[in-house]
Amino acid sequence: MSAGSDRGPAPGVPPPEAAGPVHPAGAGGGDGRAVRAVAARQSRSRRPGGRSTGTSLPLPGNATVVVVGGGPAGSFFAIQLLRRARQTGRAVNVIILEKKSEVCFYSPVPFSSWEGCNYCAGGVSPRLVDGLRAENIVIPDDVIESRPTEIIVHGDWKSIQLPVPEGREMLSVFRGSRPRQRTGRYVNFDTFLLHRATEEGAQVVTAEVDGVRYSADGRPVISYRAPAGGRGDPAVGGGDPAQHTIEADLAVFAAGVNRRPGMEVRDDPLTAALEGMIPRLRPPKVRKAVIAEMRDKEDRLGVIEGEVHFIQYGSKDLHIEMASVMPKKGWLTVVLLGGSVDRAEPSASLRLVERFLRLPNIRRLVPQRTELTAQCCCNPNMTVGAARNPFGDRVALTGDLAVARLYKDGLYSAYTTSSALADCVLDQGIDRTSLARHYGPVVRRLHADNRYGRVIFQISHWVLAHPALSRVLYNAVMTERMTTPQERHRLAPVLWQVASGDDTYRHILAGMVHPASLWLMLTGGLFLTLRDVVTERLFGLDWTGVPRYMTGVPVERVEPTRNALFAAAGLEPPARPPQMESMFTVRIRADKDAILRQLGAFGDPARGYLKPRFVRIHRVTGTPNQVGSVVRYDIPVLRLSFSMALETVVPERHLLYRIVEGMGEGGMLAFVLDELRPGVSLLTIYVGFDFPKGRGLGRLGWGLGRRIFPEFAHNVIWNYSLCQLRHLAEIDEG
């Protein structure tokens, strides 16, 4: 159905009347308490009657159902209701009243534009993807802005990369036509869903609802303003808005908590009218958020394509409890919540975003030379609680106006509540008792689960924002990843669920406090952290000013990585792993030339990495990155030394050093470069050698040497050095 078509009332639907009783809230302002008082007096005299106690009121045949709000919650409800009704052979007329000045319908139907947005980051969670698939709702490719392949959880010590698990899918979208500067801005998620609702048979009217009351026979009467012309069609232009009313068998309110940006929900005249109709209704608690759409005029954001960043801390003077950064086709969506947001005036929202982007870990997130500018920034409400009694006779609230999942997955909770409401009104009834018994539990379950969510986010904020605790968590996750097969992991799945919302909060909290998880935090986290700190102090590794990145290789990738590394050099992998074997990878946002320049500095006195105390590393002959170059290691305190010669060079791909003299003769040090995508490379480092066996006292000495310089010490040194190398390469690139 085109936005420019001449929409008349759906069959069997009484046309909106220009004249008729208008609820006092239609004045569109004034004291909310006074409005609520008037609404309460009117509603008490017009409550539905004629039903005996305990008798349900079914949705009548050829019923008129009015949905206030054309966002996802309203569209999901309309789609589900119309599909189920058709399957059961029932006739239902659905009218969606949407206040946007122009409603944009998805191509190939001619469309105008849905101006504005719905104040949402636009993340489509794995659970919502599953739900849409079950409903056979396929989001078109041009609506999808990105398909994230990993969530990166930021910790004060290091960030943890969490690949999207096999069989799960995340998406990002834009919810409306803003920001105005983006290409194809009229193609968006809300438009797509609303068009699907019209395909199912819903009628859409551009109108702003300003009041609701009960008629004499107990049916809800919705009053609204629409463009002059009497049709309520967005294509009808000119003139002042005309006042209309429509009587419905059922009214569903899915208008969200941002009908007016920055408005207190209880001061909304529509909320006041609903409180007058529904006994003991209280709107949900909300919290302010900041959402900004950023872009770089040089379009350098492609290097972080596929990433979603989850951050739970700010700084001493920027109190952030929850933040996300989501790349989209040349854009970056930034969402902030926390004490600084709560206290800030709307005019300060953009300054908060700019301060957030200057935080050290966020500066490292954004590619070098990127100059982000905000094209739009808003300060919307976010639902953080549940409405009390969000239903009455023939009236129900859904979506954010009823309940939302705490800080996560608001689109999924809109889908859940709206689908449950559609099932209830078709299968059980539209009276308050039926809604309370069969729709109310869905709202209450979401609200109860949010209590667990509050505990989860308090714990995760405390851990991730703390320098020592975040290091313990990182070491525990990486130890599990490097020693245990993926199907037996505990910690990474819990982190994934916290960041993605891909499970109930109750189950997530159970996983967090499970004895096996706590044991891993103790053995793979705390003990290893203490060991690493001692080793760093011994070798003089100071992390001050050094960015920290992930470097470990999962146990499943060790053998394939080893085989690929040897194959790149034209060698057969060893029959058995050597006594000393270490393998590391680090992702670098720089081209191969910048990385190779840093690798060429290996052995140079002025290099900026791999300079541990007690070890002197220097080139004794040859040219950087050329076959025949020899680098020598001297450990004077132990009177040990060995030399490595660059044996094989595969241009822009592989450097292979062999130990040609001294300890570990025959062993190897190899560097392999793989381009993940333009501007992003993966550097893999492999070290493998056997300790000399020796004879007599020499055998004892080499055994002692293995214990004095164990494998973990080598890992600590290379982990530190790789972080330095990445930082230098990215500066070089920039």
Describe what you observe in this structure.
This protein has 734 residues and is α+β, with helices and mostly antiparallel strands. α1 runs parallel beside α5 and α13 packs antiparallel against α14. 34% of the residues lie in helices and 22% in strands. Mean pLDDT is 85; it is low at 1-52, 107-114 and 229-239. The radius of gyration is 31 Å and the shape is elongated. It folds into four domains: 24-112 and 181-282 and 388-409, FAD/NAD(P)-binding domain (3-Layer(bba) Sandwich), CATH 3.50.50.60; 290-379; 458-539, no CATH class; 555-733, START domain (Alpha-D-Glucose-1,6-Bisphosphate, Chain A, domain 4), CATH 3.30.530. It starts with 31 loop residues before the first helix and ends with a helix. The chain contains 19 helices and 28 strands. It has a seven-stranded mixed beta sheet, with helices on both faces. A seven-stranded antiparallel beta sheet has the order 22-28-27-26-25-24-23, with helices on both faces. Strands 8-2-1-12-21-20 form a six-stranded mixed beta sheet, covered by helices on one side. The longest helix is centred in the middle third of the chain and has 25 residues, at 440-464.
Q: Structural class of the helix and strand makeup?
A: alpha+beta
**Strand order within the widest sheet?**
6-5-15-16-17-14-18
User: What is the radius of gyration?
Assistant: 31 Å
- The DSSP helix count reads 19
| CATH level 3 topology of the largest domain | FAD/NAD(P)-binding domain
**Mean pLDDT over all positions:** 85
- CATH architecture classification name of the largest domain: 3-Layer(bba) Sandwich
Span of the ends, CA to CA: 50 Å
Q: Give the DSSP E fraction (strand runs of 2 or more residues).
A: 15-25%
Query: What is the overall silhouette?
Result: elongated
